[in-house]
Write a structure and sequence with these properties.
alpha/beta; TIM Barrel; 10 helices; binds zinc ion; Glyco_hydro/deAcase_b/a-brl; Polysacc_deacetylase_ArnD; Peptidoglycan/xylan/chitin deacetylase (PgdA/CDA1 family); signal
Length: 292
């Protein structure tokens, strides 16, 4: 039985709308497997993990620990289906300053975008989708939870999970992102066996993380930066947000952690690079010395 661990950070407990805080828990039976070459119609050369038994959606959490100091920063572009009125009255669910800083610092990044966000900010979505420095992936259309009890998010029924993800791909493409990746991040990071089964057949790899930045609802950029720097290991995936209203310190955090991690010898990569490295290590290659 797969369950989501529940070590909720203080920031997470404060609010639910931006609930991608979550944990670094490893659900049983959802370990990354060796992969096959690309299986998505949307991005034919993108590395993905091999599905589990019965085509169960595979879950990726971090890259290899022994192939050098690489780290992937990921940013969730959160906007919930019901937040249109708040955007209309001036709340900013985007963060163009953060994206500009990533460009200035030449930090590749993976953006997990909700379909609703792409509808609200199509010019930014298009710009990200055409910039090779970034890769755009799927964070659902509605940002509703795929399990019960997920930071107070509204829950989506199992019969609507697949269509919600497909609706997000349609919205992201319509906004002008030509090749959104076959990666999916569960809202709040909450999933179970039913959710993984509901998405089987779409060809997505679920992408979690092993480093929680704690930027959601944070007010102390230094504390967030420390948490990232303390947590990063070779192959890490860091979760952050590009949503000004609910993660106001993230740009400052990036300005701190990027030079520091580079000083420590880290190289910034995208999630696809880490999945590619994972697929390339050991396994079934002829002559491989990997035991077992
Ligand atoms: Zn989210």
């Amino acid at each position: 039985m797969i369950s989501v661990a529940r070590s909720v950070t203080a920031a997470c407990a404060l609010g639910a709308a931006l609930a991608a805080c979550g944990t670094a828990g490893t659900p049983d039976g959802a370990r990354p497997a060796h992969a096959r070459p690309a299986a998505s119609p949307s991005a034919t050369r993108t590395p993905v993990l091999t599905p589990g038994p019965g085509h169960l959606t595979p879950v990726f959490e971090h890259g290899p620990r022994t192939l050098g100091k690489t780290v992937a920063l990921t940013f969730d572009a959160d906007m919930t289906a019901g937040q249109g009125p708040r955007a209309a009255t001036g709340e900013h669910f985007d963060n163009p300053g953060l994206i500009g800083t990533l460009r200035t610092l030449k930090v590749p990044a993976t953006i997990f975008m909700t379909g609703r966000w792409a509808e609200e900010y199509p010019a930014q979505a298009r710009s990200l989708g055409h910039d090779p420095q970034f890769e755009v992936a799927n964070h659902s259309y509605s940002h509703y939870a795929f399990t019960d009890d997920c930071y107070g998010l509204p829950t989506i029924g199992a019969d609507r999970m697949k269509s919600d993800v497909e609706r997000a791909y349609a919205a992201i493409r319509k906004a002008g992102v030509p090749n959104p990746l076959p990666y999916f991040r569960f809202p709040g990071g909450c999933y179970d066996h039913q959710a993984l089964r509901a998405l089987s057949g779409i060809g997505v790899t679920a992408v979690q993380w092993d480093v929680v930045s704690g930027d959601a609802f944070a007010t102390d950029a230094d504390a967030v930066a420390r948490q990232v720097l303390d947590g990063v290991k070779p192959g890490s995936v860091v979760i952050m947000h590009c949503t000004r209203s609910a993660a106001p310190t993230t740009e400052r955090v990036v300005r701190t952690i990027v030079p520091e991690l580079r000083k420590q010898g880290y190289r910034f990569v995208k999630v696809s690079d880490l999945i590619g490295e994972t697929n390339g290590q050991g396994g079934n290659r002829p002559g491989s010395l990997t035991p077992g």
